[in-house]
Amino acid sequence: MGLFDRLFGKKATRIEASPPPAAAPQPQPQAAQPAPQPAPPPAAPSPQDAAREAEGVRMMTELLDEVVRNVATALAARGQVGGANFVYVIAAVAGQMAQAGAIRARARAGEPLEAPHVAAVETASGRTYLFGDAIGAALIGVANDPGVLWQSAGTAGLPFDQEVINELFRHAAATVGSDDFGRPRGETAVSPDLNIDQAVLHIQTVVPSFTKRGIGQDIWPRMTALATRHALLAAARDGDMAVLGQIALDAAIAGARVQFEDVAARK
Q1: Distance separating alpha carbons of residues 245 and 149, to the nearest angstrom
Q2: From its phi and psi, is residue 110 left (phi > 0), alpha (psi between -120 and 50) or beta?
Q3: Tell me: the pLDDT tens digits for 208-245?
Q4: Mean confidence (pLDDT) of the chain
Q5: What is d(CA 36, CA 54) in angstroms, rounded to the nearest whole number?
Q6: pLDDT tens digits, one per residue of 53-78
Q7: Are 250 and 182 in contact (CB under 8 A)?
Q8: What integer is the mean pLDDT of 11-28?
Q9: Staple partner for 180: which of 6, 75, 94, 175, CB 3.0–4.6 Å?
Q10: The pLDDT of residue 42
Q11: Arithmetic mean of pLDDT, 13-28
């Protein structure tokens, strides 16, 4: 029996004769009730708090501008100009940072680096790539700390549901080790001029902006995810935002699969 039935269910009862009821009491005038008062507005931040917040926004914008500028400058020195290139590189670096962050978190917690959380896959060419649920979760992130995939899709206005996520991961798994690995799917109006290994090597271009500010490694995945968003916004004038967003998504997943030490050794 549900709560409603327990409270309001009917029972059969014997009705006894009873004296006529007394006269009903006359209603008494009610005292006027004060009108409800609106809730007070939230307190305005103090000038000191507002100044600190504004300074934080300024410093973050300065950092993200520097990351995008440094990558774009390094690419231009190699003749690799255009928004598609620096979006591709920064997203690939963000993917690599997501991988490193996931592995570091599991190691710190004493959790094993094994399937299904982290799985090493060796190809016929002898290259090893990393897959696993822990890395996938780091790429996606959560609502209050979105990862590079969430940031990229949201910034570019692309759909981002479980079906889309599954297709992204399937494409990366199907192309791993091939020339198509990390490349945007289908025909696109713009396309990066470098491959995923070359993109991931630009960790060395990005990291100095963090270390000189004393930003610890645990924050690097978040910073590079934000930098990917910043790069997409900066590149929007160079091409279709949806295409740039797709470039970022594929680059981030591929960047999370390669091992930096392996890439550096093959440089």
Answers
A1: 9
A2: left
A3: 999 999 999 999 999 999 999 999 999 998 778 999 99
A4: 86
A5: 37
A6: 888 899 999 999 999 999 999 999 99
A7: yes
A8: 42
A9: 175
A10: 76
A11: 43
* C-alpha gyration radius of the chain: 29
Hey, what are 258's tokens? 């390669």
What string of H, E and C letters represents the secondary structure of the chain? CCHHHHHHCCCCCCCCCCCCCCCCCCCCCCCCCCCCCCCCCCCCCCHHHHHHHHHHHHHHHHHHHHHHHHHHHHHHCCCCCCHHHHHHHHHHHHHHHHHHHHHHHHHHCCCCCCCCCCEEEECCCCCEEEECHHHHHHHHEECCEECHHHHHHHHHCCCCCHHHHHHHHHHHHHHCCCCCCCCCCCCCCCCCCCCHHHHHCCHHHHHHHHHCCCCCHHHHHHHHHHHHHHHHHHHHHHCCHHHHHHHHHHHHHHHHHCCHHHHHHCC
Query: If we measure between CA atoms, which residue out of 214, 247, 207 comes closest to residue 228?
Result: 247
Task: State the Cα torsion 167-171-174-175 to the nearest 10°.
Answer: 180
> What does the alpha-carbon distance between residue 85 and residue 10 come to, in Å, rounded to a whole number?
74
Rounded to 5 degrees, φ, ψ at 142 are -130, 175
The Cα–Cα gap between 44 and 22 comes to 60
Per-residue pLDDT at 14 exceeds 60: no
In this prediction the pTM is: 0.80
Asked if 188 and 47 count as a contact pair (C-beta separation under 8 A), the reply is no
